[in-house]
Amino acid sequence: MLRWGLVLLIAPLLLLMGVYWHEFGSVNECILQGGQYDYQLHECTFAVTMPFVPFAERYPLLVNLSMLAALAGFVLCLIGLYSRRR
User: Fold this and answer.
1) Which residues, 6+ apart, have CB-to-CB distance to 51 below 8 Å?
2) Largest interatomic CA distance in the chain
3) Tell me, what's the pLDDT at 86?
4) φ, ψ for residue 33 (rounded to 5)?
5) What total of structural domains would you count in the chain?
């Protein structure tokens, strides 16, 4: 149970950070080129100013499910640490 708890605790958060940093790299490249990043279309534009849309609003299902999975992993880790070994 402890192993599954650790997997559920760490893997979803690594996935969430991977998606975030991948998008952050695209935004950073766009800004360095002098453009504005369109968060809805995931592309760099040079014509108009685009509003900032938070990551949790763009990917609500990914954020919520990864947090729930991490919480479930934490609970499984606690159960695994406090239960007796057979």
Assistant:
1) 39
2) 66
3) 61
4) -80, -10
5) 1
Beta bridge partners of 44: 37
CA contacts within 13 A on the Cβ side of 42 = 9
Query: Is there a contact between 58 and 16 (Cβ–Cβ < 8 Å)?
Result: no
d(CA 33, CA 9): 37
Query: Which pLDDT score, from 0 to 100, does residue 40 have?
Result: 86
Task: Output the six-digit token pair for 34.
Answer: 């002098």
Helix/strand/coil (H, E, C) string of the chain?
CHHHHHHHHHHHHHHHHHHHHHHHHHHHHHHHCCCEEECCCCEEECCCCCCCCCHHHHCHHHHHHHHHHHHHHHHHHHHHHHCCCC
In order along the chain (86 residues), what is the average pLDDT of each group of 10 residues?
A: 91 95 94 91 87 91 96 94 77
Query: Which amino acid, one-letter code, is at 1?
Result: M
Task: Give the domain range for residue 24.
Answer: 2-82
